[in-house]
């Protein structure tokens, strides 16, 4: 049976974060607030849990699950190398609404879907999400909704769609503007914006000092 914790109340927040950490470590799914939309997440290194996440959303492995981290330094152990452009964008926009696609470290034992050797990483600007991530480590997190439906901007909306597939719901209040993160692919020769969202393309170009192409 799933449980909802109101993280705006201190005692509930403490209990909820402990319950969520326990759920993640036992291979279960949790819903957590982020600075963009609510996410459904699990241990990034638990392949069975990732499959459960995809099943809960009604989605296949052809759409890989992004990974959220709780600190800048966590990324160093997850990717093959951190290029200068990635460092610049991390310093400018993390934590925040920017996701970076990089080549992941080949030694990592994870299965996030059909990633073709890459991983999409983000550090969210939300205290509840950051506290959980710093406790349990990197999490595979996708938007908390059934495939084909709008992302949830509240824990209640997430529960309406995902129900008992999720063990713990962390309610951090409304997520504000229902805007997804901007995605920048840094696996090629030049940076490529795959999706413009919370961070404007012009801001990315300004930080990198180059013209940035946007995928069509």
UniProtKB/TrEMBL annotation:
Annotated EC: 2.7.7.87
Main location: cytoplasm
Top-rank EC class of the record's enzyme: transferase
YrdC-like domain ranges (all copies): 14-199
InterPro entries on file: DHBP_synth_RibB-like_a/b_dom (IPR017945), Sua5-like_dom (IPR006070), TC-AMP_synthase_SUA5 (IPR050156)
Localisation: Cytoplasm
Gene Ontology molecular-function annotations: ATP binding; double-stranded RNA binding; L-threonylcarbamoyladenylate synthase; tRNA binding
Catalytic activity: L-threonine + hydrogencarbonate + ATP = L-threonylcarbamoyladenylate + diphosphate + H2O
Keywords of this entry: ATP-binding, Cytoplasm, Nucleotide-binding, Nucleotidyltransferase, Transferase, tRNA processing
TM helices/strands, residue ranges: none
Record GO biological process: regulation of translational fidelity; tRNA processing
Gene Ontology cellular-component annotations: cytoplasm
Recorded family membership: Belongs to the SUA5 family.
Alphabetized PANTHER family for the sequence: SUA5, THREONYLCARBAMOYL-AMP SYNTHASE
Protein name as catalogued: L-threonylcarbamoyladenylate synthase
